[in-house]
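Dear support,

I submitted the protein below through the web form. The confirmation email said the job was done, but the results page showed an empty box. After a refresh the structure appeared. I'm attaching both so you can tell me whether what I see now is the final result or a partial one.
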Amino acid sequence: MRRELITFGVSGQLFGLDIMTIREIRAWTPVTSLPHVPEYVAGVVNLRGAVLPVIDLSIRLGWPATEADPRNPIIVTEFGGQSRGLIVHDVNDIVAIDGDALQHPDAVAQDEITCFIEGLATLGDNMVMVLDPDKLMAGDQMDRAA
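What the results page shows now:
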C-alpha cells in the first residue's frame, strides 16, 4: 500500500508526516507564550477564531530551539480530535512511498528521537524519518498545553 507524506526539514534533517494528518501549511505567525507549559510548546496562535497550540518540533526532538522568523512555516496537524501546529524549518515535497519500504527504527537505535519515529524510508539519496503523530503528541504535558 502506498502512502503519501509531506516532507520537511528540522535542524538539518528530513522528516515526513502522513498527508492525512495535515490540515494546512501556514506562514509564520508570532505565537503568544503561555506560562507553565513544557519547553517544546512555543505558545498559541489564533487559527480562524480557535486557539492552536504550537510546538517547536526541534525542541520536541531534543535539539536546540528554532529561532523562528517569517521563513518558518507552521504545519497544522490534526489527529485524535486535536489540532496542533508544528514549527519547522522548511517544507519540501509531497512524496509517495511503499508501505513495505518503511523500516522500523528499532533495528537501528532506540533513543529520545527514535521513540517518535514510525520508520525510515529512502528517497533517492536521502533518508526521511517518518514521524508517528500519536507518539509525538502523547503525554499528559501535551494534553495540558492544549
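Response: this is the final, complete result; the empty box was a page-load delay. DSSP finds three helices and ten strands in the chain.
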